[in-house]
Amino acid sequence: MFGVSIIVFMMVHLVPGDPALVILGEKANQAAIDALREQFGLNKPLIEQYFFFINNVLHGNFGTSIMTGEPVMHEFWQRFPATVELALIALFMALVLGISVGVLAAIKRYSVFDYSSMTFALAGISMPVFWLGLMLIYIFSVQLGWLPVFGRLSDVYYLDGP
Q1: Residue 14 belongs to domain spanning
Q2: 27: part of which helix (H) or strand (E)?
Q3: How high does pLDDT run on average in the chain?
Q4: What distance in Å separates the CA atoms of residue 134 and residue 29, rounded to the nearest whole number?
């Protein structure tokens, strides 16, 4: 765990660019940049920044989002229900599909269906999840237009199809 904390801390600090300039923008004056560095402790030695980072993480303080200015935990909990919803739907679909296809493949042993389902399962396990997700978005959102490209379905959105 200690090694992971060092890797995470160093990855954040090795990103090119000054975090103060990223937050304030290129046209910020030097006084504002210095004030922001002081506020976030970026002007302190790296080892001191690391211990400050560990102390905050142990107390559940993950800082403030650069994009929204809100606490990171607030942003996390705001998006957590959608993540759980997506995971549960995917789990349900995988169980129903996996058990159904597995039972049928066992019943029709050594058939074309058996070999096809094994090949499909092997391809599915071998394919990176992010690639499969991108392909599903491309097919069902971009090509077919059945689903929105991003975001969640609302209560009034129906799957009509073309």
Answers
A1: 2-61
A2: none
A3: 87
A4: 41
